[in-house]
Amino acid sequence: MKKLVALLFLTFIVVSCSKDTNDDSDATPTPLEGKWILTNVSCFCDFGNNPDFSGHKITFAGNNLKVENTGVFSFLTDAEGIFTLQGDLITLNNGVQYTYVLKPDVLALTLVDNPQIADDEILLTYNRE
Q: 77-120: per-residue pLDDT in tens?
């Protein structure tokens, strides 16, 4: 009987100490993994001559996106949090979707166009930090 109680106690300890499967900090890395600095924006916008976009940075860690806007220009302001990937489509926490093209140290995000909004096209180009 003591062996059975000891075995049950040991099983309880092992199960209670096992890793939580809902922990997003160890989510599967994506090809976007890492920190990216905005280098260029292409849109129907006027940023003046020689704009500096480097104050905007994004970091992909697992399936979580962190957005940093410390410069004059702000982008993806309400997109921080969980994102999903499906093929070359990324859906951000706010529901906005971008297609992406990834080259070794360059990431290009193109806003999925809403046909009911004129001139909403935008291409954000990032370099890996």
A: 999 999 999 999 999 999 999 999 999 899 999 999 876 666 67
Single-letter amino acid, residue 123: L
Quick one: tokens of 35? 């920190």
Determine the Cα–Cα distance for residues 29 and 60; give it in Å rounded to an integer: 9
Q: Is residue 98 included in any domain, yes or no?
A: yes
Q: How many domains does the chain have?
A: 1
CA distances for 115 relative to 95, 99, 119, 120, angstroms: 16, 16, 9, 9
Rounded distance, CA 125 to CA 110, Å?
9
Query: Is residue 18 domain-resident?
Result: no
β partners of residue 81: 65
Nearest Cα to Cα of residue 62 among 102, 103, 17, 32:
32
- Alpha helix (H) residue ranges in the chain: 2-17
